[in-house]
UniProtKB/TrEMBL annotation:
Coiled coil spans: none
Location of region: Disordered: 74-97, 240-262
Protein's organism: Aporhodopirellula aestuarii
Pfam families: N_methyl, SBP_bac_10
Domain of life according to the entry: Bacteria
Residue stretches making up the DUF1559 domain: 34-375
Compositionally biased spans, kind Polar residues: 248-262
Protein name stated in the entry: DUF1559 domain-containing protein
Entry-linked InterPro entries: DUF1559 (IPR011453), N_methyl_site (IPR012902), Pilin-like (IPR045584), Pre_pil_HX9DG_C (IPR027558)
Length: 415
């Protein structure tokens, strides 16, 4: 007769060994899975930026200019002798006009598969945010109005998949910002005063300091980029605020751009966590204003904190906004009565990607710039209209020269 052997069960030791092996394998595979997911998100972000660049080129083909940053409708009315007057200042909220405060992103919406949204913006009576019928003017109110439906619309083409920011207190976030060059001065008003009147002194100051592809309230075109489209950054990636006092997304306020150099922006950061502010030693924008005022919170708003970057501090550095001006007009920086959220300042690009961020070149190429890019002398204050530095090469090395459009600087390094 055949004898049937009795089957033995797993011992506890064998079971524990198997569990340990599985745990080791999972521990080895999870970082690879996470890295693969981030690589996919980074590629998707690059593709979004390429679509944005294509939209800018198509806009230029249609209108022979770049989309104007800070443009739109104003409240000018005819005064005595045919002079144009404005009944209020541009920082004043309005429901009848947008006071030329819309960002460059508004103009390219129909060129990035956003025709339906553009129809709502360009025509009157767009819907409210809650979906009810609205009584809005064509091109909408000033961009801080959260009731205006189109401004609260999340545009997928303007978002980086690696950025987890979503929803209130922001409305309509953006991860892509216009490059204004290597100086923050006149970065809010351009050649305008607080009543959107163009003056010679401000035009001179703007021409001197605003050396990037985009200039507030001013038309620019590819023909203005004399350094070459492939050598000039026209837009950069920014990360949106998560309410955690991140130095990149919640700018500190009150900086004196005339005396405080870029390397002083980070003063006030937490000693143990340098990427976050020490709340007790610095005043930030969200503390000075409201929770809805932070980096990238409004894609339609042309004010610097929301949709502007400059090539002064290297990517992922701390951000800082200028002090609120006194009652006297300062043509060097910005005009009187401008509140903190509208101020210009040191606003480097940033991202949730590891080690750097994407930038969009004038020829439509998207490049990844590392945090360690050569950024020149960070102890030098940026160019001002009264500075002997006018017309010279950028203080901020390769990084600064990439942000200028017509400074005749030779780009002889890879980045």
């Amino acid at each position: 007769m055949y004898s049937r052997s009795k089957r033995q069960a797993f011992t506890l030791v064998e079971l524990l060994v198997v569990i340990a092996i599985i745990g080791v394998l999972v521990g080895l595979l999870l970082p690879a899975v996470q890295a693969a997911r981030e690589a996919a998100r980074r590629m998707s972000c690059s593709n979004n930026f390429k679509q944005l660049g294509l939209g800018i080129h198509n806009y230029h083909s249609a209108y022979n200019q770049l989309p104007t940053h800070k443009s739109g409708t104003s409240g000018f009315a005819s005064g005595g002798g045919g002079k144009l007057i404005s009944p209020d200042r541009w920082p004043t909220p309005s429901v009848t006009k947008n006071n030329e405060q819309q960002s460059f992103l508004v103009g390219i919406i129909p060129f990035v598969e956003g025709q339906a949204l553009w129809e709502q913006i360009s025509n009157p009576n767009a819907p409210n945010t809650n979906g009810t019928p609205g009584t809005w003017p064509a091109m909408g109110p000033t961009p801080e109005n959260a009731t205006y439906g189109p401004y609260s619309t999340e545009v997928p083409a303007f978002r980086c998949p690696s950025d987890p920011g979503v929803g209130l207190p922001a409305f309509g976030r953006t991860n892509y910002a216009a490059c204004l060059g290597d100086s923050p001065n006149r970065g809010t008003d351009g050649a305008c005063n607080e009543k959107l009147e163009r003056t010679s002194s401000r035009a001179l100051a703007t021409r001197t300091t605003q050396r990037g592809a985009f200039v507030p309230h001013q038309k620019t075109a590819f023909r203005d980029i004399l350094d070459g489209l492939a050598n000039t950054i026209i837009a950069g990636e920014i990360t949106t605020d998560l309410g955690d006092n991140d130095t990149r997304t919640n700018p500190k306020t009150g900086m004196d751009l005339g005396s405080q150099s870029p390397n002083q922006v980070s003063i006030g950061a937490d000693a143990t966590r340098p990427q976050f502010w020490d709340v007790g030693s610095v005043t930030t924008l969200t503390a000075a204003g409201s929770s809805g005022q932070a980096r990238g919170y409004r894609w339609a708003d042309g004010n610097p904190v929301f949709s502007v970057m400059n090539t002064i501090l290297p990517p992922n550095s701390a951000t800082g906004l200028s002090q609120i001006p006194s009652t006297s007009t300062n043509v060097m920086d910005q005009d009187a009565s401008i509140v903190a959220v509208n101020a210009t300042g040191y606003l480097p690009p940033s991202s949730r990607h590891q080690g750097g961020c994407h930038v969009l070149m004038g020829d439509g190429a998207v490049k990844f710039v590392t945090d360690s890019i050569e950024a020149g002398n960070q102890t030098k204050a940026p160019v001002k209209v009264s500075s002997s530095f006018v017309g010279h090469e950028s203080h901020y090395g390769l990084w600064g020269s990439l942000g200028t459009r017509a400074n005749k600087e030779v780009i002889d390094e890879s980045f």
